[in-house]
């Protein structure tokens, strides 16, 4: 036990010696004294105005609490949306399979059916022929897996 105590004493003495040696340089000495002066001024101010310090700490704690509550609300909202997606995804897969079954019925040996749909424009020189686009429905065996 005595060896451990001596070890820590020597560590502290070494740190003090290193600090004292570093103060030989003028810039370091000035920076240390300025920092110590600012720290002592802040400490004196805190001792003379404890109410202001506690008010500042209370305000910071309220801001943190408000931020945590907002984050909690956001997490609850996102969790609800994820659950809603989990509920609607199987329904959407069912609708897609039903739609595939209605439009993609094919006889053996035939290719996929095509369905013409209005694209919503006008073509042709006389301006009367509708624009048609063909929608090719392909096998969607991987839907829902």
TrEMBL record:
For region Disordered, the annotated ranges are 105-127
- Report the superkingdom from the record: Bacteria
Q: What is the protein named?
A: YtxH domain-containing protein
- State the species of origin: Neobacillus notoginsengisoli
